[in-house]
Prior knowledge:
mainly alpha; two-stranded antiparallel ribbon; globular
Amino acid sequence: MMEDRWLSVDEIADHLGIKRDTVYKWIGERQLPGHKIGRLWKFNKRAVDEWVKSGGATDAKGDEQER
């Protein structure tokens, strides 16, 4: 069940093709679904994929931040 494990900030940034700074920005500004465990953020890949598909990663101007 490796597919169900929680991903780190770096892993979710790699998965989405964005910078880790953008992950932190999206947590605060766009409600990127994640859970803070102590000092670390962890992400469920399926939940993040659904968030992206529903338009969560696109801002009002339509420009997504990429690497």
